[in-house]
Write a sequence for this structure.
């Protein structure tokens, strides 16, 4: 009996290791957990796209909003864009765009081609606000609550599943909060 | 993003090739030759050295196995510029590292901080080493006891002696 138990030790160790490695197969190393979840969204004041007006993130206090980081040079942004167009047509939640390290001309052309779901777009030409939000790959999407706290971050293009199962339910839930 | 990195790599390769063709001496920093790094550092070797040391500790989140000192991804260039500005503004190393971790998390550090969630990471290998040493010690001890407990019989001893004198062929 004792000998049999001894043989089990390497077997158990192997199974454990295999389970960890198996789990690793399905993890995405590019999805780095953000330390910003649950923290106040960094404040910014930036010029609006194709306008002289400035916009401050403080103006969004009191409502739930979606903050989407995009650029015309970003191919995956094209993939998620129809989902934002649809979300905008449902008028559920304001979507603010952060045009990240882009030129106004290219950005405007891109929107003319693919549609403009944004309530407004701010221009982060040198990527500084992007750094404040811990952006490292575009697109990234944040859900920010009425108190201005970041509640969710989606890295990479939003999928239909992420939109239906996570983002929209979360927005409704946050909108119900006082 | 990835395209940018490819373009930068191509440019770098082209620059290196051109250098080799011309028989010129390699530049001190190959990347500087390609013009893809951030703007040349301030004319202060001490600050430049500090900058570089901090940049070596920070992971580039785009090309995750390079530090921001090594990477030419545009994010790495931006982050290097941040480090440069903050060094110039007189921030301490800890303040600069804090700036990065508050935005990108501990992942941005190549040397993970010692805390509850990283205990296994820091001490796991040593724990395995100790377990291995204990197992080895027990096995060796058990074998020693076995060897001592089985002395040769008289006939075995005689045969061993014959074998040693070469009187019997090897079996």
């Amino acid at each position: 009996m004792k000998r049999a138990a001894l043989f089990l030790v390497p077997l158990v160790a192997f199974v454990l290791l295999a389970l960890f490695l198996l789990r690793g197969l399905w993890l995405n190393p590019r999805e780095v957990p953000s330390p910003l979840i649950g923290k106040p969204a960094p404040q910014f004041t930036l010029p609006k796209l194709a306008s002289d007006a400035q916009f401050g993130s403080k103006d969004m206090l009191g409502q739930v909003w979606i903050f989407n980081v995009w650029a015309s040079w970003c191919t995956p942004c094209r993939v998620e864009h129809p989902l934002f167009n649809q979300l905008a047509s449902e008028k559920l939640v304001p979507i603010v765009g952060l045009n990240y390290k882009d030129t106004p001309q290219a950005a405007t052309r891109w929107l003319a081609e693919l549609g403009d779901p944004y309530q407004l777009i701010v221009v982060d030409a040198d990527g500084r606000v992007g750094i404040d939000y811990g952006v490292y790959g575009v697109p990234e999407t944040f859900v920010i609550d009425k108190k201005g706290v970041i509640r969710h971050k989606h890295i990479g293009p939003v999928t239909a599943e992420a939109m239906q199962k996570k983002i929209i339910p979360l927005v409704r839930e946050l909108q119900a909060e006082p | 993003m990835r395209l940018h990195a490819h373009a930068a790599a191509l440019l770098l390769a082209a620059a290196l090739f051109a250098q080799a063709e011309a028989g010129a001496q390699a530049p001190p920093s190959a990347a500087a030759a390609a013009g893809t790094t951030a703007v040349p550092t301030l004319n202060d070797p001490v600050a430049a050295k500090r900058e570089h040391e901090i940049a070596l500790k920070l992971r580039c989140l785009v090309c995750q196995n390079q530090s921001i000192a090594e990477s030419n991804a545009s994010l790495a260039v931006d982050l290097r510029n941040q480090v440069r500005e903050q060094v110039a503004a007189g921030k301490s190393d800890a303040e600069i590292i804090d700036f990065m971790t508050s935005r990108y998390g501990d992942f941005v550090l190549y040397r993970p901080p010692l805390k509850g969630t990283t205990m296994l990471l820091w001490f796991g290998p040593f724990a395995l080493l100790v377990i291995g040493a204990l197992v080895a010690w027990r096995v060796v001890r058990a074998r020693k006891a076995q060897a001592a407990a089985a002395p040769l019989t008289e006939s075995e001893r005689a045969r061993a002696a014959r074998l040693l004198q070469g009187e019997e062929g090897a079996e």
Summary: The interface with chain A takes residues 1, 61-62, 64, 74-75, 78-79, 82, 101-107 of chain B (CB under 8 Å). The helical segments of chain B are 2-22, 30-34, 45-57, 74-88, 93-104, 119-149, 154-165. Residues 152 and 160 of chain B are 9 Å apart (CA to CA). Chain B has two domains: 2-113, 117-165.
